Please model this.
Amino acid sequence: MQEDDIKNYLKNHPEFFEQNANLLAEIHLPSPHGNGTISLAERQQLAQRDKINALEDRLAELILNAQENDAIANKIHAINIMFHKAKKFDALEQLVSAQLPEQFNLADTCLRVWAEPLDTSNRANLVFSMVSEEAKTWITALEQPFCGQPPEMVAEDWFIDSAASVAIVPLHNRETIGFLALASDNGDRFYADMGTDYLTKIGEIISAALSRYLQ
Model:
């Protein structure tokens, strides 16, 4: 008799276990936890307990992720309200340079815009600093925010200190008008293939806020 024959017999005759209940206690197998041998019934109980523990761990992980996502969503909502209340361009820029790092635990931020301001006096703001053509071309080609190690075209004046990882979010107003770069001193904070939905939302909020001040 082959192993498959035994499997098929037991599948097709579930009454076997009812008629031979004592056999389950007599058959001993190695413990999955390495503590000698245990009965087949005990092994099944341990297997079920392990599955339940794994499901509980997974549920706890999902709950934690949901709580973290909810906290991020609340922060983005609060930032959105602040941008709507900003009455001057300088106030908007301060929200990016001060509030974003504080709210999202960032080392630094960099906001650059190459569209022309409506008020020429704003032209002196650091936001309108020169951006290389290489960087403009690279950022304009982005279909979603970039996350990972700082690319070579990151200029020295983007951040006060060198970043271990960055997120670069293109800003749009019918066309690409600039970018928001977020810096972290944690090399694992921003990484390739991470979700970018929240970064995209932040980019949309800032793009809309900037549109009031640009030609």
